[in-house]
Each structure stands twice: as structure tokens, then as C-alpha cells.
Amino acid sequence: MSAEIPAPQMGFPKIYQVIKNSLCTACGGCEAICPMQAAKVQLYDEANYDKFTPTVDEPTVVKLFSEISREDNYCANRQCYVDCDTCLACQNCLACQRICPILDGFPGDDELDNVIDQRIGKSSIHGQDGGAVTGILKSLFEQGEIDAALSVSRNEDWETEVVVLTSAEQVASAAGTKYTYEPVLSSLREVLKNYEKIAVVGTPCQAHAASLLRENLTDKIKLVIGLICMESFTYDDMGENIIPNIMGLDRKTVKKLDFAKGKFVAETADDKALVPIKEIAHLARKPCHHCMDYTSYYADISVGSIGSPDGWSTIFIRNNIGKEYLDKVKGIEYHDKPIFMDIVVKLAAQKHKNNAWDYEKFNEVVWAGGEWTPEEHST
């Protein structure tokens, strides 16, 4: 490097270690918080790590912090190192690492130690099982408690996309569980410009990042609804393989997907197909195999079906924010029986056991500025 060019000040952001080790969940939080828009979540990048591993876009963050010629990428105008094709420059502000769920860690063995109330509920609106999430959002929109909600919708081919719901009438378009992953929080940047009272619906990693964004970035995120989740899949695995090949169904005929009693179930209007979960579990997204949060520990409210009768939703209230909003919701019928907690505890423990890795050591090494090498730190 020539003498007149200053020494680089950027270093390696800690999310680089998350990306490099294929731990990135693609929650989209880094894209939402990055002031330079240098972080871009890209779900299907075959050039990085392995096919369909979520990464941060190669031409921006990853390239900036890889072993490339610093001189070639020095910009005298910005006095930093950039990718000149896009001119998106990481300024090493470290905002991204403050909201990364992997760098924040996972809950302990007792995922339910922060639950302050629990209910079995059912909405009159059509949705997955009891339709509780749909009912909650619709009621809060109608009362003016929220003016936007981030969620995921699908088309008849089960292709998914992130949607910004802005009215009670739109809520039904995002009803139902898809099991195909989308970086929900990547859309938050634009939503924050236009809305003041935002709800976020997402998987455990997304709920975790949304809570960290609320803590570190904005008070516009009013409610975080987390989904109880064992794992998720890419569309190529779910839509192009599991449904048509393993289950032998036409995607367009499938009305509902569900995990139940050790089976993955796809229902059509007049039939259903079942396959043991163990036969498709290996197809789950790679970061899902490192996740140790089953019940969306960091959400305000967690919702799923496990532990409730058919047609009802399991609802865990985890803090006073969740209680305040759920108490305002109208149109939810509550069951008088308690949640069957044994199965919830069993499945949470199973996820912890199956996905166990030394994330505490990972964070110890990374936060100290070290290089994580899984082989050296294997449990």
C-alpha cells in the first residue's frame, strides 16, 4: 500500500464471523440498521459458503472485510474502502453487531422462564390453527394501536414474500404458516420512514433481532410477535422438492402445511400427505441447525399450536408489553383449559439437544476480537 493512503480503520465487524461460519439467519436486522445501506441480505447466493446459505451481500460487507487488496478498494473521496460499483461503504459503526441475534446469544435451557401469562386462544378469522396472530393484528389495526405490520404472504405456488400490512383488511392475506423463510426485517428501513406504530411477526431469530432493534434503534416497533418454530426451509427445498417430490402433491392444491405429532403434513381440499419429520429435517436451512430458541423467547408474545387442542393457538405472554397489547385485543376466544406444557418443554429441550453448539465460546472469542474456528472450539 502506498505511503499517502491512510491505514484502514475498518477492521472486521463481528457479523463477519457470523457470516463466514454460515451462522447468519438472514433475519434482515443488519440491513435495517445499517446507516450506509452496506448490509444486504441475500438468501440465494451460490458463490458464498454453500447453496442457499443466507449471507450478507458479497459486493458490500463481505467483500470489504475479506482478504482483498486494500489499495485497490480505497476511495479518496470517501476516505474509506468501498466497492466502487455500488459505492456502499461500511463505516465500521458496529450497529449491525448490536442487533445480531447470533452475537446476542440464545436463551438458557428453560425457554419459558420469562413467561408471565399463557393462554389458549382462537380467532373467528381464518388462519393457521386458531388464527391468533391474524386476530391480534386485525383487532389492533381496527383500534389504531398499530399502523403497520411486517409479515410474510404466499402465492398459490407457495412462493413467499415479505409484506407490509397497513390495514385490518390486509391481514388475512398473510394468514397461515408457510415454513419458507424470508428476511422479514430487511424491509424495516422503509417502514420506519412512513409508519409510527409497527408490529413485527417473525420466527425466533427475527423476533430476537426485532427486540434488539427496538432496544438500540427505534421506539416505533411497538409489538413483537414471535412464532414457535423448530426449523424453516428455502423455497427450492420446500416448494420445489418436499411438496412435489417427497409428498407427491401439486403445490397449487395444497391449502395448509403443518408439523404435528412427529409428521410434516400437507393438506389439500380433500386429502392430506404425511411424512416423518426426520425424513426432511436435514433439508432445513443451515442456520436453523444452530438455533436454540424454539418458543421465540425474546418476543413480547409467542404464538404456535403445540400444546393446544386442534383449531386453537398456544399463546405465551413474555413481558408487560405483550400483556398490554393482548389485553386490548377483541375477537379472541379463550379456552378454559391450560396449555399442555409437557410437550412444549419436551420439544424445546429436543431442539436445544439436537442443535447444541458452543455459542457462548463463539461469542467469547468473537467479542474479544478473535477468529472463530469451529474445529478448534468444538464441544
Quick recap:
This protein has 379 residues and is an alpha+beta fold.
Question: What are the key terms here?
Answer:
disordered N terminus; alpha+beta; 2 domains; 379 residues; three-stranded antiparallel sheet; eight-stranded mixed sheet
Shape: globular
Mean pLDDT across every amino acid position: 84
Adjacency order of strands in the biggest sheet: 7-6-8-9-13-14-5-15
Q: What structural class should be given to the helix and strand makeup?
A: alpha+beta
Share in helix: 25-40%
Q: Using DSSP, what is the number of strands?
A: 15
Major sheet summary line: 8 strands, mixed
Parts with pLDDT < 50 across at least 5 consecutive residues? 1-10, 45-70
Q: Compute the separation of the termini in Å.
A: 41 Å
Strand content: 15-25%
Number of helices: 12
Order of helices and strands: HHEEHEEHHEHEEHEHEHEEEEEHEHH
Report the C-alpha radius of gyration, rounded.
Answer: 21 Å
**Count of structural domains:** 2
Draw up the topology in text.
Elements: H1 15-20, H2 29-33, E1 41-42, E2 55-56, H3 58-64, E3 74-75, E4 80-81, H4 95-98, H5 101-104, E5 117-123, H6 132-142, E6 148-154, E7 160-165, H7 188-194, E8 198-202, H8 204-216, E9 221-227, H9 235-246, E10 254-260, E11 263-268, E12 272-276, E13 301-304, E14 313-317, H10 320-328, E15 332-334, H11 341-354, H12 359-367
Protein described:
This protein has 12 helices and 15 strands. The strands form 4 sheets. Strands 7-6-8-9-13-14-5-15 form an 8-stranded mixed β-sheet, with helices on both faces. Strands 10-11-12 form a 3-stranded antiparallel β-sheet, with no helix packed on it. Strands 1-2 form a two-stranded antiparallel sheet. The model is unreliable at 1-10 and 45-70 (pLDDT under 50). The radius of gyration is 21 Å and the shape is globular. The chain has helices at 15-20, 29-33, 58-64, 95-98, 101-104, 132-142, 188-194, 204-216, 235-246, 320-328, 341-354, 359-367; strands at 41-42, 55-56, 74-75, 80-81, 117-123, 148-154, 160-165, 198-202, 221-227, 254-260, 263-268, 272-276, 301-304, 313-317, 332-334. It is of the alpha+beta class and 379 residues long. The longest helix is centred in the last third of the chain and has 14 residues, at 341-354. The protein has 2 domains: 15-103 and 358-367, no CATH class; 117-354, no CATH class.
